Amino acid sequence: MKTTLILTTALTGFGFAAAAQEVNVVSWGGAYEVSQVEAYNKPFTAETGIKVNMIAADNPATPLRAQVEANNVTGDVFDIEVSDAIRLCDEGALVEIDPADLPAAPDGTPAAEDFVPGALQECAVANIVWGTVISYNTTKFEGQAPSTAADFFDTETFPGKRGLPKNPKRTLYLALIADGVPAEEVYDVLGTDEGVERAFAKLDTIKADTVWWDAGAQPVQLLADGEVSMTTVYNGRIFDAIVAENQPFEIIWDGQYMDMDMFVIPKDAPNPEAAMEYLKFATGTQRLADQAKYIAYGPSRKSSASLVGLYQDGKTEMAPHMPTSPEALENAVLDDPEFWADHSAELTERFNSWLASS
Question: Where are the beta strands (DSSP E) in the chain?
Fold first, then answer.
């Protein structure tokens, strides 16, 4: 049954608000979590009285799946990638979400028309568009600086260790881009045996120089500690390091991997009504625009774009730092969730075997 939350009177009765005074949100931690707390959680609690408990995970899809399989769901809202949302929805683990229940844009445009393509799935609603990019430590290179994905693999011209995630989805595309495959052809190539061999052959060239990371905070720390001279990293994390922490890092947008994060609600969530109210609130036009004040991730709603302004420092224009800026899109690989739904298992097995080999 659809619950209509009247913000000014929600706490005066004994209905939904009295029964569910908290919601457990599982997200990715770090600067990203801070942006959600400031843009979503604090105003949500202020207007509803419902407490938001944030729980950090290296990849929230992992505890979500574990909780579902154990029949012990403790999270209410999970922030996960598109391919995971599609797969878990197909498996019957998630609540279906009707776009008609989501808030319209300020001018009345229905949510179904206001979200960017792919942002609304049967069981998921996107909140951000984000990118995996290359970043380097400027103190490690004198004279010529790296500027392309191919440079990432050129350890002779640009010496030093490289940081890569221990994940085929975040590595195989980059190997193909560096080997000359146009961004729009990456998944066509990777869908062939020859393309897979080509990607792993390229990764072979830097395998001995690679430091592998698992969590989003690690590549920034690897750069800061000087353990690597270049790494792939989530664009919002590295923006925070550059602008908020004044770290000597630069971003290479060539070969950016673009993805979306999506809010989902598992079946048997402990606070399902509060979860749905939180999801609707957090994916409203103003809330998504407000998040960009704290981190360089693009809002998933078209109506939010014009509301994106300055960073919290009051002086940095956020639009040029978005993964959807013209420069960032020049050679960007767009995530193909259907491809990963079909090929993730086999490529992960191949990737893990490759990692284990000498």
Answer: 22-27, 51-56, 77-81, 120-121, 124-137, 162-165, 210-213, 230-234, 249-264, 298-299, 333-334
What is the rounded distance in angstroms from the CA atom of residue 358 to the CA atom of residue 355? 8
Q: Token digits for 140?
A: 């490690």
- Buried b or exposed e, range 33-45, using 16+ CB within 10 angstroms: bbbbbbbbbebbb
49, with CB counted inside 10 A (0-12, 13-18, 19+), is middle
pLDDT of 328 reads 87
- Is residue 236 a contact partner of residue 39, using CB atoms and an 8 Å limit? no
Q: 250 φ, ψ to 5°?
A: -130, 155
Quick one: 106 and 228 in the same domain? no
Q: List, for residues 90-131, the tens digit of each pLDDT value.
A: 999 999 999 999 999 999 999 999 998 889 999 999 999 999
Rounded CA gap, 308 and 244, in Å?
A: 18
* Residues 274 and 224 both lie in one domain: no
Contact (CB, 8 A) for 17 and 49: yes
**Helix (H/G/I), strand (E/B), else coil: 157:** coil
Give the tens place of pLDDT for each residue, 181-223. 999 999 999 999 999 999 999 999 999 999 999 988 899 999 9
pTM of the model: 0.78
Reported as a pLDDT band with limits 50, 70 and 90, residue 358 is low
Question: Are 213 and 181 members of one domain?
Answer: yes
Helix (H, G, I), strand (E, B) or coil at 213: strand
User: In angstroms, rounded to a whole number, what is the distance separating the alpha carbons of residues 65 and 265?
Assistant: 12
Task: Please report the beta strands in 215-269, taking only residues with DSSP state E, as ranges in sequence order.
Answer: 230-234, 249-264
Residues paired with 24 in a beta bridge: 53
Please give the full DSSP string across 102-132, using - where no structure is assigned. Answer: SPPPTT---HHHHBPTT-EETTEEEEEEEEE
Radius of gyration over alpha carbons of the chain, in Å?
Answer: 21
Residues 31 and 76 in one domain: yes
Domain span including residue 99: 16-129+260-319
- The tens digit of pLDDT for each residue in 254-289 reads 999 999 999 999 999 999 999 999 999 999 999 999
Q: Fill in the amino acid letter for 257.
A: Y
